[in-house]
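Problem 12. The chain below contains 238 residues. Write out its predicted structure in token notation.
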Amino acid sequence: MNSFILMLAAFTFVSTLIGGLLVLRYKRSLPYIFAFAAGSLIGVSFLDLLPESLDLAVATHVSARAIFITVVVSFFLYNLIERFFATHHLHEHDEHAHVMGPIGAGSLVVHSFFDGAAIGAAFHVNAAVGLIVALAVIFHDFTDGINTVTVMLRNRQKSRSALVFLVLDALAPVLGVLLTTYVIIPEAALAFLLAFFVGEFLYIGASTLVPETKHTSRKTIIGMAAGIALIIALTSLI
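Solution.
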């Protein structure tokens, strides 16, 4: 692996950290950040993960119906998980124990790992394709950093815990780049995994983050639109 690819991997690390640290720095603007994160999560689900999942399904002769069933099951599963922990594990004096924060942020970490893997795989095609994918991932990881910290804070996690997941999220694409040469995930399995992320991210965006913004000003609408617009711009690069 040449130094240029390693440099691009380092940029993904920095981009993710900057996005997350901005959230921690400007906590007073959380309603607008929640709106931006909701827009970007919903956008990346429909414009990035789902199309990629369907493309892999076609290539491996997996039915589109199976992919959409996976999305629905994932959405329903995360709804059940949140209801279970909200009912049985939250106490009035223990508001920081909500497990949906680490679950959601952990999934974003896994997603970031596959972003890094996409960079490594693209360079196997040629350097030009690799560079385009890397640039898209670098900018996209900025929103991943925002989303990781936002999900943690929205679920009553401490800033310290959010920072831990932010660092993990920043390291994940670097690890993905490094391991691409050695670990190959079957395309059919990857299609279902991406579909599972779609269901989860839709749930987080629509059911968890959007309700936090409904009683605030129209700036939240602008924030959500900005999140969607950014994902549209980034996905158009690939």
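Discussion. The chain has one domain: 3-19+30-235. Students who got a different answer should revisit the alignment rule from Section 12.3.
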